[in-house]
Specification:
Its cofactor is Ca(2+). It contains five helices and 30 strands. By secondary structure, it is mainly beta. The chain has one domain: Single-stranded right-handed beta-helix, Pectin lyase-like (Pectate Lyase C-like, 3 Solenoid). The protein starts with a helix and ends in a 15-residue tail after the last helix. The structure holds 2-acetamido-2-deoxy-beta-D-glucopyranose. 2-acetamido-2-deoxy-beta-D-glucopyranose binds next to strand 3.
Length: about 375
């Protein structure tokens, strides 16, 4: 009798350990850092130590004086945000804020949502959908974490005013309808979000934004997916450095995964489930290192991963290259790439080991918003 009970327990434990989203061995370096911790719910801020790439570790978001703020009210008042709403937590609280959500909720933004410096939005454990006007805007701010949100059906917004940091009303210009837009933002980590079906694009990094890591997100159903660099004339974006890792692009993405102007992008270990026009490209002599990605070309149409705009001289001075990428379904990566490689030159806290491209489908399997069970690992 006792033996059979033990046996049943043993089987149960084996099933728990083998449950599909709990295998540490197949997690990427960011996930491995926190998802194996069964106490992650009580130790949420540990997440900030897990980022890699150009954002570096997000340790300015944690430590002494962090205010824990829980969103309890899905409503939105852009000029007079009520306590308990996401907008109140993201704009009205001074210093370091770690925002979580009390329950599943759908938030329809009435206007774009400004996120102030030293703010972490942490949607783990619940299902939070953000839609409406805007949507998220990091404007002249630093040290921002956006984790675990579904953001979709974001619509354009004509010039308007919203409540901003330090309870000051801020006039905003036209917003095109992107899920997340960074404008002159620094040290930002965007991880495990699911982004789709927005009016303009899904993620724009513009106007001198820098030190950004975009990881573990799922981008789908979109024409223009990701823009890095404001416009051809915006020379300050020459200093821009962005890391794009462990993301899943597709299905139904057309172009800009990403489109880069001027700056530097390290695009590694991403899973590309087709494209229409192209996957990675740009203009104004950007530097792009495409490393150990898994490119599956669309069945019909354009098989070429890259797209480069500019005259011949321009194109010749690009630093655009592919290392260790895998090409399926006839995908190709044009090797007429000008003067050759540019390494990311990460410092110690940004550095990470790029995995073999053959493991990319495994490493990106849980991209987008994670399903975390209440009692187990995430
Ligand atoms: C959010 O909206 C979806 C439909 O878009 C609905 O299925 C879901 O129940 C809603 N969730 C909440 C918490 O209201």
């Amino acid at each position: 009798m006792a033996t059979s009970w033990c046996f049943t327990l043993a089987i149960f434990v084996v099933i728990l350990l083998a449950s599909p989203n709990a295998s540490l061995a197949t997690m990427n370096v960011i996930d491995k850092c926190w998802r194996g911790n069964p106490r992650w719910r009580n130790q949420r801020q540990q997440l900030a130590t897990c980022s890699v790439g150009f954002s570096g570790k997000m340790t300015n978001n944690i430590g002494k004086g962090v205010i824990r703020y829980k969103v309890t009210d899905p409503s939105d008042d852009p000029l007079n945000p009520k306590p308990g709403t996401l907008r109140h937590g993201a704009t009205m609280i001074k210093g370091k804020v770690w925002i979580t959500f009390k329950r599943n909720m759908n938030i329809t933004l009435q206007r774009p949502l400004l996120i102030s410096s030293f703010t972490a939005i942490d949607g783990r454990g619940v299902n939070v959908h953000v839609t409406g006007a805007g949507c998220l805007l990091v404007y002249q701010a630093t040290d921002v974490i956006i984790h675990g949100l579904h953001i979709h059906h974001c619509k354009s917004q004509p010039p308007s005013s919203v409540m901003g940091p330090a309870s000051k009303v801020i006039p905003l210009g036209q917003m095109d309808g992107d899920a997340i837009r960074l404008v002159t933002a620094k040290k930002v980590w965007i991880d495990h979000n699911t982004l789709y079906d927005c009016q303009d694009g899904l993620l724009d990094v513009t106007r001198g934004s820098n030190d950004v890591t975009i990881s573990n997100n799922w981008f789908r159903n979109q024409d223009k997916v990701m823009l890095l660099g404001h416009d051809d004339g915006y020379l300050r974006d020459r200093n821009m450095k962005v890391t794009v890792i462990f993301n899943h692009f597709g299905p139904n993405c057309n172009q800009r995964m990403p489109r880069v102007r001027h700056g530097y992008a390290h695009v590694a270990n991403n899973f590309y489930q087709g494209w229409e026009q192209y996957a990675i490209g740009g203009s104004m002599r950007p530097s792009i290192k495409s490393e150990a990605n898994y490119f599956i070309a669309p069945k019909l149409g354009n098989k070429e991963v890259t797209w480069r705009q500019g005259n011949r001289q321009d194109k010749a001075s690009w630093k655009f290259y592919s290392v260790g990428d895998i090409f399926e379904n006839g995908a190709s990566f044009s090797s007429q790439t000008g003067v050759g490689g540019a390494k990311p030159f990460y410092n110690q806290e940004q550095n990470f080991k790029v995995a073999d491209a053959r493991s990319v489908s495994e490493l990106t399997r849980s991209s987008g918003v994670l399903k975390c069970s209440r009692t187990l690992r995430c």
